[in-house]
Amino acid sequence: MTPEAVSGLVVVDKPAGLTSHDVVARVRRLAGTRKVGHAGTLDPMATGVLVLGVNRATRMLGHLLVTDKAYDATLRLGTVTTTDDAEGEVLATAPTAQVTEEQVLTALSGLVGDIDQVPSAVSAIKVDGRRAYERVRAGEKVELPPRRVRIDSIEVHRVRLGDDGVDVDVSVRCSSGTYVRAIARDLGERLGTGGHLTALRRTAVGPFGLGDAHLLEQLEESFAVIPMAQAARSGFPAYELDEGLAADVRFGRKLDVDLGTDGPVGLFAPDGEFLALYEQVPDQDEPLARAVAVFL
Fold first, then answer.
1. Mean pLDDT across the chain, nearest whole number?
2. Given 43, 84, 193, 243, which is the most exposed site by the fewest CB atoms within 10 A?
3. Is the pTM of this model over 0.85?
4. Are strands 47-54 and 195-205 parallel, antiparallel or unpaired?
């Protein structure tokens, strides 16, 4: 099968220095199609898992965006920057000789759970039609409202204490929409030192991890695509259809079935073909499922 005919997911191990859009442009060239998108932006300084959809699979990306993510990161205490990471200008510094490892662990434990997090001002969130980071880079002051996010765990691997800075190596598992830069900032605020992010590597997006990812150089040699059916089975619960229900799904009709979960759920024809994502219709006397997206 030629790359031009492929629809599926491509999992890239993004290098530092490239934007997510740069990676999309490279994969468009390799796939021979303009229909390439990505699920979840990575900053240029960040590396790791970037999930891309090719051709029909671009329609899956919006649903993968809401999945959980995992990161390895280094948080530095003692310096505040304009971007909450190492790429920004330094706004303030503070001594860190008084900081103890126990204080770091206690402060981080307070950031785990369902919390209201203020996104970084240089996030991709739109403010009156423009990205927040565009407004910041144009010299505007941007204040974003807090958002409810879920941080499942912050595992601390190492705390490197110092008079002029403390570096904390962590692994984070969190909901989509969580900003690891904001965790560094908030840790610094709790300890009175300020803080920012110095390294970030995304290790997983939902079920897709570094073991599934390919360097761009590897994709140049062999364009590895996860086929639609395999991607759907990995990313969503699966529901097997009989021929009659499969015919209804091909027309996007509602189904009198219980999918077993709210959804989205991947629906598969008897021959294994991935047909659609469906969700359960709430508040029904009898089970009813409706189409979220049909992939035909």
1. 92
2. 243
3. yes
4. parallel
pLDDT tens track for 20-36: 999 999 999 999 999 99
Take residue 49 and report the two structure tokens written for it: 């898992």
Q: Is residue 275 a contact partner of residue 232, using CB atoms and an 8 Å limit?
A: no
Q: Please state whether beta strands 265-268 and 8-14 pair in parallel, antiparallel, or not at all (unpaired).
A: unpaired
| Residue positions annotated with a catalytic role | 43
Confirm if 24 and 225 have CB atoms less than 8 A apart.
no
Q: How far is CA 143 from the centre of its chain?
A: 23
User: How far is residue 46's CA from residue 124's CA, in Å, rounded to a whole number?
Assistant: 15
> What secondary structure does DSSP assign to the chain, as a single string?
--GGG--EEEEEEEPTT--HHHHHHHHHHHHT-S-EEEES---TT-EEEEEEEEGGGGGGHHHHTTS-EEEEEEEEESEEETTSBTTSPEEEE---TT--HHHHHHHHHTT-EEEEEPPPTTSS-EETTEEHHHHHHTT----PPPEEEEEEEEEEEEEE--TT-EEEEEEEEE-TT--HHHHHHHHHHHHTS-EEEEEEEEEEETTEEGGG-B-HHHHHHS---EEHHHHHHHHS-EEE--HHHHHHHHTT--B----SSSS-EEEE-TTS-EEEEEEEPSS-SS--EEEEEE--
**Is residue 201 within 8 Å of residue 47, measured between CB atoms?**
yes
Question: How many Cα atoms within 13 Å fall on the side-chain side of residue 214?
Answer: 16
Omega within 30 of 0 (cis) for the link into 146:
no
Encoded tokens for 99 = 């900081």
Both structure tokens of 51: 């999930």
What is the distance between the alpha carbons of residues 131 and 46, in angstroms, rounded to a whole number? 19
pLDDT tens-place string over residues 176-213? 889 999 999 999 999 999 999 999 999 999 999 999 99
